[in-house]
Every structure is written in structure tokens, then in C-alpha cells.
Amino acid sequence: MITVEATLTPTTLAEALEMRAAHPGSVPIAGGTDLMVELNFDRRRPERLLDLTRVPELAELGRDDGAVHLGAGVTYTGIVERLGAAAPALAIASRTVGSPQIRNRGTVGGNLGTASPAGDALPPLVASGASVEVASARGRRTVAAADFCVGPKRNVLDADELIVAVDVPAARGPQQFAKVGVRNAMVIAVCSFALAVDARSRRVTTAIGSAAPTVVSAPEAEAFLAGALDERDGWDRPARLGEAELARFGDLVAAAARPIDDVRGTVAYRRHALAVLARRALDWAWTDYARSWA
Amino acid sequence: MTTTPTPQQHLETGSALGHSVPRKDSAQKIRGQVKYVGDTEVPGMLHGKVLRSEIPAGRIRSIDASAAEAMPGVVCVLVGTDLLDIDPYYGHAIRDRPIIAIDRVRFAGEPVAVVAAETEEQAEAAVRAIRVDYEPTPAATDLDGATGPGAPLVHEEPARGGAFHGLGNLPERLGNVCYRYELDWGDLDAAFAAADVVVEGTFEFGSAYQYSMETHACIAQVDGDEITMWANCQHPFLVRAEMASVFGVPLSNVRIIVPFLGGGFGSKSYTRLEPLTIAVARKARRPVRVVARVDEAILTSRQHSCRIHLRTAARNDGTLVARQAVCLFDTGAYADNGPRVVATAGDAAPGPYRWEAVSVVADCVYTNVSPAGSYRAFGAVHQQWAGELQVDEIARKLGIDPLEIRRRNLLRHGEDVRPGGKPLDGDLIGDVEKAAAALGWDRPRTEWVGRGLSVGVLAAGAHPVSCATVRMEADGLITVNCGTTEVGQGARTVMPQIAAEVLGLPVDRVRMGGTDTRFTPYDRSTGASRSTTVAGLAVQRAAEDLRRQLEDMAGGEADPAEYLNLMRGHFGFAGGELIGRADVHPEGSGSYAEGPVFWEVAVGAAEVEVDPDTGVVRALRTATIADVGRAINPAFVERQDEGGGIQGLGTGLFEEVLFDGGHLSTETLLEYRVPTTRDIPREMSCVIVENADGPGPFGAKGCGEGALAAVAAALATAVADAGVPVNQLPLTPERVWRAIQSRNDKRSEV
């Protein structure tokens, strides 16, 4: 049962930021797919909710300068429908979030606000080098998605700040996202993995979900792959990667994780499954690169 | 017995026995017009909220509810000491459970206090203001903790039998074992010694939650020694008797009104929130409504988890000769329906094969976690997968096809399932052949795709007592009065079909409402696949009684078109009414030992794909057999098998209630995973078998539970067929992956 004294309903970003500053005890709500669970279970009793659904700036979705500007209030359904080409990993991940009803409500801003390492949108943001736009009545700042979360359910937001948008560099190569859960839909990932191939800067970047206190990348795996590709001129004369290379990449990704045992899975299984996901994601993405991007 | 009508008769009368008459309640339900208990309001009604124990075991030193009592809108706070004027323990099998905790708590989540307030919000706020001082004591939070040396005792007081235990004399408790079921025949040692092949293993079965969309709910009103309830009970007449006994009032002073139920699957069997709701209403002197949240519903009833040590012996020619099962069932802090679950599981443990020798010992064990009770196909679902895995293991060792080894060993119609009781009344070999054919057993196979079969039987029908009346009023419309609860199975459509068939009337002239124990004839329970079979037989007989009255008036055959004229002739004006009545009661002593009413068939097949890297199992196709004797409504039979099959998929692959140190860790429907539409196999076929061999109306017998046990077991045998035998359900990706790892390790050792 929800017992909230009052709900603030700003209609502009400026108003929202003023309210945020005036009521530090207020909790922002967009889709409510995380927060309502907390309220229903009485795990939180905020004095006020700050309803962001009427703020038009947060619903913006546009492209400029090779980046996608994604308002914090854009839903997963919106991402699936509109960003399949510009942000493929994010779109794939969005497709796996919850159920259709949850995708119609849930937002990337909410994923960042909750800052769970199991947030499905976070590995694609980190792998694709996205940045998070944060604002307060004092001004604006930009934080790299990789630095935004600082621990389980903890992020860099100050008490008077709101997440305004995410800027995602438009994809310059194939991207992939994969996760393992116990059933096919409506499931919190046991672990997940995102990967972005950047054909212009000739880099492959990675991110691991649900297997460390925050989403982390796998720099050793990235470096190994960069070396292997350089050695055989892989970017200019791409061919499918060999089993041994894929396996080594997977192992290095698994080694970068710092998983725990919990109700969804054990350390051993999480590491193993991550290696499998990383191997498969790289194989799919690189095969795709070889076919159409080189 | 009425003979089957010709198709022409169906057209003439529209009674449509054997036709898929649409559900009478579907339009109402789809439009959201059905009122469930949680939608029902009674004048002056308060809202009740429950404070639950935070620790799995301990003594209650003190409860301070003074702050809560002073809060706005709060009418009263019920605590254990309010119950000392009555004998405040209930439990239909073993009377071991206090209405709310009195001096000690036995599981995290046990009700400790109940607040009644004007609004739900006020009641919730007051619950948070109650302070309980606990003295924690050692807890036995799982089977190991409850059965090892020096295990803390969950109950120390002597056991008392409940009103409906039906288990013979209650034996002395052995530590935390509150009930033991044993089944033996033949010379086990000799049979094992003489066998050529012996397989042996330990099997772990995880607890599922019944997950009905509607949670438990009850409204209680107490006026002197009259108790009225609106409750979503599957067994209102048993609850009525138990509440009369606990609160010390005459049986007929307890009245339970049961509207539609939003599913039950056993979670609403026997007594649930009723006693604490009555107790708080008694203290408040006003009606109180209590509606459980999902996490509270999980803590109110769940399925038993169990551990089975199983040995099976066979000869080189594929003849199965002996089986031994030693089983431990975790019933949680209170026995609930555990003893019956364990006895049914004991009967299911051998599997329906022709054994020379069998030994089963099944223990019902108390632990300091939430109580386990009935869930669709209980007993069978616990045992069938393990037994069938061993049948297949023997088949693999001997190079015999799984279908063939079953053909050779399955019991035939009329053979004893166990010594005493009803012999097999179905055609299992025909059934498993149909399941294999429906799945395409002989189609070519590919790597990591497995196919499995499973066969079992389930003691069904419970105690066969049902009464019914069929009433014809002066407008010629018929009302069936029958205490079966419409729990989603279609009872309020099927019972009218049965009466319409007997009376030769169109089914839209016949209706059936909900139960009000003050007016509705007695029915023991809605469960054990008994409604159509047992209550339906009472309805058939009551309709025949009504027809006989009309025939007496006609002096011979009564033409349905003349019913109203016959009535008018009898009463002399357009008034009066005719009531046909009948009952079903046990023949012989009526004991369970002579039962069951029928053996429900649990036969299925499944095809799965295993991802060898991640261990993820995908169910591709399932087939189930609805061996129903006679399908009164074929579409309902198919829906029963689909529903049971999907729950079998959940039990087989996803669903598990988990505790961490006695605390429920799967308290939301995100962490507790029922199958979603994305998990449903692309093909689920249900083959209806009609051999008219059931004891119910027109040769019918029940269905719907067997499919759960059959599908869960067939998934396990299919995953084993893909190369990965796993001795643990559900088959989560991690467990399957570990089984693949250990298989690979063994291979590399060789």
C-alpha cells in the first residue's frame, strides 16, 4: 500500500529542478517500474514523489553530430521502435526488458537512477561510450556512462540533480547484447554482456552486467582482441574469428567480472555464462562486420 | 445410467453433452464484472493487516501494541493472548497451528498480530507501529537442519489429530517427522539381489508456489455465536466444520459464502486466512476483510519440496522387478496437508509398473519455514520425474527404447496399483502410445534435442461425499445447487450440462451459482480432480430424481416440452417447484485405503532443446493425455491439460520458492518465475481419451492434475535423452550446465 504525502508535478525542466532543490527528500518517478515495487513492499517511504512524466524536455529523442540525444524519459518501447540502427545494442537490450507493459513504461533514465548492475540498458550504454547529462538548478554537467554508477544502487547524482538525457554515439559498426536468465521474458539477468565494434576508430568495446557491483568493461579482453586483429590485419581483411580467439576473449571477459553468489546464480556459473555470452556476441558482431562493414 | 444421445438429439435439445459449450461466466469475467472476495464490501467493514514474524524460530517475550492502538482509524489489534478463551489451534490433518502466534513463532512470516482499522492505509501504518520482543531460538530451516542429530524441534507439544486427517491412528512424532507413510510388498532384498541391473540416485525437488492470480481473501462477521464469512475457499464445508470447532459454535452457525475464485490450484484448499479473520472480527465487533499480498500468499501456502532416494532394479530382458524409495518432504512449520501429500506421494512412488517388490518410506518433516500444502497433482508431481528418469536410465543401459520398456512393464486395466484399494481403471499403454505418437516419437533426432515420455497415476477423488439438488421453478428454468467451487475449471458450465443432458433441456435453461453453506447442499471439497466425477455424479442423480418426479406426473415418459404443463397440472396453478435431490457416498468402508475413487492418469511427452554452453533448456513441444472416460466438455478438458501442462513447465524449468536462512527470498513475481507467453512451447497437444471407464456421470473421470506431473517429468526425461540427466528440479540453466560439466569430467577421466 502506497502512503505518499504529496506528488509534485512539474511541467518544465526548470520547474522540476527547482522542486528537486526545494524538496531534497522527494524521489523522482518516471515509468515507476522499479520505484512502485519499492513502495508497494514498503521498502521506501518517500515524503514526496517528483513526477517527471509531464516534462517535455525529458521525452526528447533526436540526433545531432553523430550522437543520439535520448531524453531520460524515453521508454524502452520508444528505443526499440526508433533506435534499432543508431544504437543497436541498446535496442536489443531494450527488447529484452521486462514485458511489453514494462517496456511501455520503463525508461533509460530510470535504469540509471536505480543504478542496479542488472539494469539491462546499462551495459550497452557503457560499451557504446555514452554519456549522461545531469542537471540541477545550479547548472549542467556530463558524466561518462561508465562512471555514472558507483556501486549497487548508488550513482553520482547529487541530492538536487536530475538525469536529463543520455547521449549515445551513433553506432559505427555492429553491436550486440546478450543475457542469460532463467526464463525467456520478465527476468532479471543472471549476467549480461554488451559489445560495440567501432569500424572508424577500429576498436571493440565491452561491458558486463549483473556480475560486479557496477557495470564494468573488460579492458584485457579488448586489448587481446585489438592485438589479435592487428596481427593479421583483421580490420581490413576481416574473416570469422577462430574458436581459440573467441574462447580466449570469452575467458578474459569472464576474468574481468567480479560476480557474487545470490538467488539467481553462483559465481562459477556467472563467470562461465559470461564467457559464453562474450564469445557468442563477438562471433555474431565480427561476422556481421566481415560481411557488411569492412 | 443414461445412454449417449445421438447427434440428432444434441441438435434437438441443445444440451450438448460432449460438446464444447462456451463458459457461462466468460463474458462476465472478461468485462471485469465478476466480484471476488477482495471486491466485496460489507456494511461497517474494517480492513485487516497482518504483522508477520521477522525470525524463523523464537519465543515472543512481549508485544507492545499500545502505539498502534492509539493511531487514527485503528479499532483493535489482535494478539495471541486474545485467543486464550478458545482452543485456538487448527489443522485438518494435525491440529498444530495457532490462529496467530501465541508464545512462540515457528517461521519467518508467521502471523503475530492483526490490526483492524477503518482503511487499509491506517491498518498498514499501525502494523508498523507494533513492537515485538523476540528471543530467537535455534531454527531448522531445511531438511538437513531438521533431520540431523540434535536438530531443534519445531514442535514440542504432543501431536493432536485434526478433524479430517483420514490417516488412521496418528503415530508418535519422531523428532521433526510428523507423519510417516509406508508401503511394502514382495521380498525387496531378494528381488534386488536377483536383478541384473540396479540404478540408484538421490533426487531433489524444489518447492513451487501455486500462483493463482487472486490471492487469499476473507471477510468475517461475528454476531454472538453466528459467524458469517465471504471467503475464497476451495473446500468451504470443511472450513466451516473446522471453524465451528475452533471457535466453539454449532456447525450450522458458521456460514461461508463463496463467490468466484480467481484460481486456486490447491493454495485455497482447507483453512487459510479464515481463523485469523474471524478472530480479529470477534475482537473488533465489526466485519473485517483481510486480503493477502502476493508475498503473503506465498507464505500462506506453497508446494512441498522433497528429497527422494530411489533404487530401481530390472532384468536384462527389460523387466522391471523392484523399487525402493526413501523420501523426505519439507512441510514447513505446520503439517497443513502434508500428511496427505506424503501418503499420495508414497502411493505414486513405485509408478504404475508390475513390480515383484516395493518398499516406500515417506516422511513428512517439520521445518522452520512457511507451511506447504496442496498443489495440483501433489504426490505424483513429486515422484513421477524421479521414477521415470530411472526407468529411462535402465532402458539406456539395456538398449531398449523408452516407449518399449514402458509397453512391457506398465500395469494393465484391472491390475493392482498397490495391494488393497482400487485396481487400475485406465489404459496406460494405450495412453503412452498416443502421447508418443502425438510428439512424433520416431521422427529423426538432432544433437541436443531430447524427447521424453512419462507415465504415472495419481490417487484422485478424495473422500467421495457430495450432495446436490436440481430445482425446477414455475418458469421452467432449472437451478443446479451443488457445493463445488467455480475455481476456473468450468464447474458452473459443466454441472448445468450434466443436468441438461438428463432432463433433455437446452443447457441455457440451466444455471448454477456460488456456494452459500447455509443453503447449498454439502460437497466435501473442490480438488483432487473430483468435481465432475463426484459432485457431477450427485448432480446427475439429482436431475434423474427430478425427471422421475416428472415421469410420475406424466404416468410414463415425460416430454421436456410438457414439463411446465405437468407442473401446472400437479400444483393446480402456475406456481410451486420441483426439487430433485441425491447424494454420492462411499461404498464399502469409505476409507482412503479402499480408494481412490479413480486413478487419474498422468501421461505426457516432451521435446526440448538444450543449449550445451549455457544450460538453457527450451521446451519445444509437449503432448498430454486427458484420459477422462467421457469428455463432458472437450474444450474444458483441453484447457485443463494446457493449464496443468504450463504449470508442469514452470515446475520443470523455472519455478522455485527459495528461502535464505528461513527467510523467503522469492517474494515477488519477478524473482518467483512462472512461465510467460514467451516460454510456452510452440506446440502443446492434448489427446482426449474416452473409454467410458470412469465412476462419474456418463463414465467420466477427472483430469487436469495429471498433466502437471506428466509434463514436469517428461521435461526431465527429455533433457536426459538430450544427454544430460539432472537429478534436481527445476532444471535451471545453472543446474543443467553443472550436469553437463560433470558428464564431461567423467568422459575425460575415461
Count all strands of chain A and give the number: 13
User: What is the H level of CATH, i.e. the homologous superfamily of the largest domain in chain B?
Assistant: Aldehyde oxidase/xanthine dehydrogenase, molybdopterin binding domain
Could you spell the SSE succession of chain A in H and E letters?
EHEHEEEHHHHHEEHEEEEEEHHH
**Helix content range of the residues of chain B, please?**
25-40%
Notes on the structure:
- The complex is a heterodimer of chains A (294) and B (750).
- Chain A has helices at 13-22, 35-40, 76-82, 88-95, 100-105, 108-114, 122-127, 145-148, 219-231, 243-256, 267-292; strands spanning 6-8, 26-29, 48-51, 61-64, 67-71, 131-136, 139-144, 149-151, 154-155, 162-169, 175-180, 191-198, 203-209.
- By secondary structure, chain A is of the alpha+beta class.
- Chain A has 3 domains: 4-51; 56-169, Uridine Diphospho-n-acetylenolpyruvylglucosamine Reductase, domain 3; 175-292, Enolase-like, domain 1 (2-Layer Sandwich), CATH 3.30.390.
- In chain A, a hairpin with a 4-residue loop joins strand 12 (191-198) and strand 13.
- Chain A starts with 5 loop residues before the first strand and ends with a helix.
- Chain B is α+β, with helices and mostly antiparallel strands and 750 residues long.
- Chain B folds into 3 domains: 7-34 and 463-592, Aldehyde Oxidoreductase, domain 4 (2-Layer Sandwich); 41-137 and 211-300, Aldehyde Oxidoreductase, domain 3 (Alpha-Beta Complex), CATH 3.90.1170.50; 305-461 and 596-749, Aldehyde oxidase/xanthine dehydrogenase, molybdopterin binding domain (Aldehyde Oxidoreductase, domain 4, 2-Layer Sandwich), CATH 3.30.365.10.
- In chain B, the strands form 7 sheets. Chain B has an 8-stranded mixed β-sheet, with helices on both faces.
- Chain B is globular and about 80 Å long.
- The chains are: A alpha+beta (294), B alpha+beta (750).
- Chain A binds chain B through residues 1, 3, 37, 40-42, 99, 180, 182-188, 190, 263-266, 269, 272-273, 276-277, 280, and chain B through 120-121, 124-125, 128, 293, 295, 613-614, 616, 653-654, 658, 660, 665-668, 670-671, 673, 675-679, 732-734, 737-738.
